């Protein structure tokens, strides 16, 4: 159950409805914003992807949905912020659900991007598709590089730090990487599994992964909280603000480590809510 935690009537977790699951497939709406000097967010109603600019090229993190419209939205956003989609060269996936493996097929076929994921979730993606009755959502491209806990992906002047955070899926991964705002460096983190799994043992694994990732974020001086789903972080509102932010206004994604830790508690709240429903 969602609780109101103060006099301002702020919920302590998002309301996750069946309609939100349906809306993940709605390709009629996209928006985007350059939220850091070198980080672009592209989203439809519910699911985000990120494009990180490095000295070697552009890296896509997650890929929205297996639809050419999602691919076109990503490429269109890249062009809109003045970057060159010909520089796309890596696709890094958090996990093997269809709303994250997404439109990777077009990125592979049109840009020859190198793909990254855990071996466990590559198998999971193939053997346990999110939509088993719909072949258009099944695994449709190969993974080039299998990632493991504490790997580092070298991307020119950027390093993406990899953490194994199982629970949401068996091989879910989370990432920490540098970004800049007005040329000032920051460290961004994205926890790969936005919602807890469906069984108590898996929920415990999920919460253990969250604790591990929060500790690793502290070591890396994380001060930027990112989400791959808009329901978790008031995502559409954060993007709308970022699109029109004045130069003297704060970057809404920069929250400090304590802010990141506080934000991350939503995943525990969702887990505890689910456990209480058993």
TrEMBL record:
<dbReference type="InterPro" id="IPR050855">
    <property type="entry name" value="NDM-1-like"/>
</dbReference>
<protein>
    <submittedName>
        <fullName>MBL fold metallo-hydrolase</fullName>
    </submittedName>
</protein>
<dbReference type="Pfam" id="PF00753">
    <property type="entry name" value="Lactamase_B"/>
</dbReference>
<dbReference type="InterPro" id="IPR036866">
    <property type="entry name" value="RibonucZ/Hydroxyglut_hydro"/>
</dbReference>
<keyword id="KW-0378">Hydrolase</keyword>
<dbReference type="InterPro" id="IPR001279">
    <property type="entry name" value="Metallo-B-lactamas"/>
</dbReference>
<dbReference type="GO" id="GO:0016787">
    <property type="term" value="F:hydrolase activity"/>
</dbReference>
<feature type="domain" description="Metallo-beta-lactamase">
    <location>
        <begin position="46"/>
        <end position="229"/>
    </location>
</feature>
